[in-house]
Every structure is written in C-alpha cells, then in structure tokens.
Amino acid sequence: MMKGFLLIYFICVIIGLAASFAGSLVGMGGGVILIPAMLLMYQYSDAFAWATPQVIVGISLITMVFTAFSSTLAFYRSKRIHIKIGLLFLTGSIPGGILGSWLNQFISSEDFSLYFGVLMIVMSFLFLVKRDKRTDDNVSRKTPVLSVFIISLIIGAISGLFGTGGGAMIVPAMIFLFGLSVHTAAATSMFVILFISIMSAGTHIALGHIVWEYAGFFVIGAWVGGTLGAKVNQLMKSSLLEWILRLMLVIVGIRLIIEGFM
Predict the structure, then answer these.
(1) Membrane-spanning residues where (predicted)?
(2) Element of type H or E holding 191
(3) Coil, strand or helix: which one is 79?
(4) By Cβ atoms counted within 10 A, which residue in 28, 172, 234, 257 is the most buried?
(5) 159 near 100, Cβ under 8 Å?
C-alpha cells in the first residue's frame, strides 16, 4: 500500500518537473503539459481518481505559481527580465482577465477553442518569416506604452474568457510586436505569469479545488523544473529556442482544436 502511494507521489513530482521545465524554457508556463498529463492519469488510473478536472486546473495553477517564481528568480539574477514591459503587460492583462471572465457567459468556448487552436499553429509558422534584428536595448529606450497596454488587455481578456492563451500569446507578442529577443520574451513572460497565476490560484484555493496532499509534490517538481528551465534557456541559442517555442505553440494549437471538436 505504501509503495503505491510513493509511486503516485513520484509521478506527481515528475509531471510537475517536466511541465515546469518546458514551460519555463519558453516562457509559456507548464499547463500545456501538466493538464493533459493529469487528465490522462485521471481517465486511465484509479489511483488518480482524486484528480477531477477542477482539481487538475487548481493544481496546475498552484504549480504555475512556483514554476514562475523559481524561474523568475533565475531570470532576474541573469538580468533577462524586461521589467518595464512586464509591468505594462500586467496593467492590461489583469483588468482584461476580469473583463474576459465576465464575457464568458455570452460566448461559446467550444467554437473559440477551435479557431484559437488554428491561430496558435499559424503563429508558430510566423517564426519562419525573416525579421529585422532588433535589440532589447532599443526597446528599453522606446517602449510603446499604449501598444503594450492594449495588446495585454486583449490577451488578458482572451485568457479570462477561455482559460487559455496566457504565455502562448505573451511570448509571440513580445517578440513580433515589441522586438524583444526570444530569451528576454520568455523571461518577461514568466514574470507576468507569476502575478496572473497567483490571482487565479487564489480563486481556486477559495473554491476548495486543491488537494494539498498531492499538490505539495507537484510544487517540489515545479520548483526544480522552473529553475532548470530558466538556466537551460540562457545556455541555448535563439534559433533553437525559437524552434522549441514553435513546437509548443503547435502542441497548444492541436490540443485546443481537439477540445473544440469534442
């Protein structure tokens, strides 16, 4: 019996570590891996009967907090985070999230998931387009404040409306619209996700969606994975990191399209 529980705890740590490593690496958080993995365990293993969809989302957000916190610390020490743009994204994404949550009652999420999934895949191919080489320093000197606020407001609204799209939209927006390097965009995205996930996780805690007996093991994996992902990010070439980001966007897109059809 004890061995069975130890195996479950070990699986929780591994899932948390893998999801957080991948999420921190490209600045998208880890939900794109953690949620499908946990849904799979819930459907095919009685040992994970406690992992209802509501609990999975709640644990995913708790994990995201520690993923973002550990990776943000690592990115901050290496001076990768663009604080100004990160704060501007927060000023727009927070009210946008509230607006999106309110609009949720008027729009069909199934139809949107299908279209949004296609959009994610299209966005992945935008990385094939040759772009002018711009530096993070140039952005620092001339940050398009109003543009950042409007874009982040839209991203926040979409995220609040359908419960998806955070990092998957933040990173490409920072790269294509504001000229950040893929390394800085990933780091700044995790900084933004930290505060958004804290707010969202607080709601799920209040609703009782967290099974703390297991959540702690996801957190252990998230802390290690988030730190490792941030460090590996700094060692990788931009071209390779962009290919990994493209792959992650395709995975997100396929998952959303499947949800739309289901």
Answers:
(1) 7-35, 55-75, 87-106, 112-129, 145-163, 169-198, 210-228, 240-258
(2) helix 182-206
(3) coil
(4) 28
(5) yes
